Amino acid sequence: MSRPSLFRYASPAVFYPLAGRLWPWFAVLAAGLAMAGLWIGLLVAPTDAQQGDAYRIIFIHVPAAWMSMLIYLVMAGYAALSLIFNTRLSAMMMRALAPTGALFTVVALWTGALWGRPTWGAWWVWDARLTSELILLFLYLGFIALQAAIDDPRRADRAGALVALVGAVNVPIIYFSVTWWNTLHQGASISLTRAPTMAHEMITAMLLVTFAAWSYAVAIALFRVRLIIRDREQQAAWMQESSEGR
Amino acid sequence: MVWNSVSEFVAMGGYGVYVWGAYAVTAVLLLIEVLQLRSHRRALDADRPAGAPRLPPAR
Amino acid sequence: MKPRHRRLAWVAGGLIALSVAAALVLNAFNRNLVFFFTPSQVIAKEAPIAHTFRIGGMVLENSLHRDGTQVRFVVTDKVHEVTVQYTGILPDLFKEGRGVVAQGRLADDGVFRADQVLAKHDENYMPPEAAEALKKGAAVNDRMSRSLVDPGTVTRP
How many domains does chain C have? Predict the structure, then answer.
């Protein structure tokens, strides 16, 4: 073997059973973290001085919004890998992540509407933060539609990878929109450069749900990539002889 | 615990509709994704020719 | 459905979705709705005064006047002030001393006629007791710093 060992896992035949062993662990982790986070967020965290209990939507809104951006960046990373190294698995991972990314984007927009109505006074405004997050949803949907429209999987992968890479420009726009422009949307409560501006039970709950959402996304992506591998490699010899189908 | 009663918890200080609307729709969407994946796997399982050997895994 | 038709449907659906998105986004940018202008920018005529735009800042303390459903208040960025007139229901979080974003046009008399008023809240989340303590702390600080300027008002906390 002349290639570095990491590439071993880039083989669908090797990754398939590995993903099968890993996803249940991430699923269990996601459930546990979500329960702990929601327990603290809904039962322990104090009410907010400005917004009353309407602020409790933050415990899904922020994790969902973070995941919608993170998943797109990871997709773009797999897109780059698949274009540079032409590895089959990275393209499959890219494809496996897209529906979950779109789902988190919908959740972020929906919970945002339900939070905006009682606090700002509007379900929706054409604010820079909201508009760029909506564009993210259309990027996800465009990616999914493109993949479904092209029959040849290799060509679909290349086209999808381009959309994922080009669209990645939007992610920093979403993230920094609240500092670049005067937006109705408030700034970040948690950032790497300064102390968080929340009571600590609130932060704990928000971070627990974020890690839950992350584990959920990993579990779902691993599960879905196995289905994609099965779809695509049905004819492959290793798939024929080893139908370890769980 | 910040609530004195169950009804207080449900009311969410008057924002119950918004808070629970957010949580419920999120739960339903995640459930739909999980069920959709499960039915996809079932469909693939059904496609596999009967009596195909189970295991051993590749290498 | 033949595969070719299915493919066509996906392409058509994708194109429609993309054009709707593009139209909505361009429209929002065109109508200056994506971000707001501060009173200073309005006074300096940096805001698109001839068009609908958004103005944002703090509601000046004691500036809110109600007349039936019509309200008038002053938006300030602590440098300049603009009076806003609005008919309608104010959001729950609208309060003097808090953030606000109003959408509308600047009339010739210099009063901003809003057709939408939104409350802007900040990214600080804390229990009411903590907010109360902070407010007291700020009041003490305020008194202390004033006492440095004018020794007549010294009051020890």
Answer: 1
